[in-house]
Design a protein that fits this description.
- By secondary structure, this protein is mostly helical.
- 75% of the residues lie in helices and 7% in strands.
- The protein is built from 5 helices and 2 strands.
- Strand 1 and strand 2 form a beta hairpin.
- Helix 1 runs antiparallel to helix 2 and helix 4 runs antiparallel to helix 5.
- The N terminus is likely disordered.
- This is MADS-box domain-containing protein.
Length: 167
């Protein structure tokens, strides 16, 4: 913007004082003002891109959110940009990994429970039965832990009935 005000000062100094030359200079001054405005807009775009790049780099480096407000030339409007830092991306990656692990465990459990025993030998059926009993015991243990936590928290609304039904 300093360059634009400097150009305006030059325009004021170069205008002649005679009335016949003022008309010719007025047309040239309009072109100079348009050119000056275009230069200002180009400079604004360049600095805008540079600011946004630096804000994104800062968000990535510091791990926090960075907000950038860019005011347009002439003050008619402004643009608001938000760059999210690394912790959000890391938290998303951890959540995705956790969901993936849980899905794999659930698929393995469904596969174990849904085995077709009609084609198994007696030893395989007995081994499968033992796995199911161990799984059942683990489920009962988890439910009892949850019930104990609920009792400690004062929320014992019928949870013990579920455990009795399973046992």
């Amino acid at each position: 913007m300093a360059a634009a005000s400097g150009e305006k000062k030059l325009q004021i100094q170069t205008q002649p004082s005679s009335s016949s030359g003022a008309v010719a200079v007025a047309g040239g001054a309009a072109q100079q003002q348009t050119s000056a405005w275009q230069n200002l807009v180009r400079m604004h775009r360049k600095l805008h891109v540079e600011l946004l790049r630096e804000a994104a780099d800062m968000a990535a480096a510091c791990g926090g959110d960075v907000h950038a407000i860019v005011f347009c030339p002439g003050g008619s409007s402004a643009e608001f940009h938000t760059f999210h830092g690394a912790p959000i991306a890391a938290a998303r990656a951890q959540a995705m990994a956790k969901r993936k692990r849980e899905a794999q465990v659930a698929a393995a459990l469904r596969g174990m429970v849904a085995k077709d025993v009609s084609g198994m030998a007696v030893e395989e059926v007995e081994a499968h039965r033992q796995q199911l009993l161990a799984l059942r015991a683990a489920v009962v243990r988890k439910l009892q832990e949850k019930a104990a936590a609920n009792v400690a928290a004062g929320d014992d609304a019928g949870r013990s009935n579920k455990i009795r039904k399973i046992e």
